[in-house]
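Reply to dn_fold:

You asked what the input looked like. This is it:
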Amino acid sequence: MKTFILVLLACTFAFPQEKETANNNIYLELLGNGILSSINYEHTYSNNFTMRIGVGWVFSNSESNSGGHHSTAFFPLAMVNYLIDIYGNNYLEIGGGFLIATSELTFSDSFNNPNNITFVPTFALGYRYSPKDGGFFFSLAFDLFTYPPQVMPWGGLGLGYKF
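and this is what came back:
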């Protein structure tokens, strides 16, 4: 029995468990891929690939002869990102995906369609601070929205928590 306990202890010290990494992010993005603001959930599937889902929103006020009009538009979005490890918890982020415009509130007349649903491709290139074992999460990105023949440059700031 003593031999078994000694072997078990020796194996524990000889093969230590790897430190568990945090694979989930929840964050608020100002501007960015959700137009003006968005709330997002992201999961890391490997050391380099993440998948993100979120919802962005925009508020609009307008005046007409019949009075003031208030409109809210929600934009579900989905993205896949590739992270390049720069050093430690710092990464270069390259991503692509789409948002779904689900309202009459659009970027321009060319975005309108009869069903009021438009898929808008979006891309991101940026910096990310993301601790491997969890904690404060920060990102700063240059974004592009494309809807041929238009390309709209944009930027975003993400703040959240990795767990």
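DSSP finds one helix and eight strands in the chain.
Hope that clears it up.
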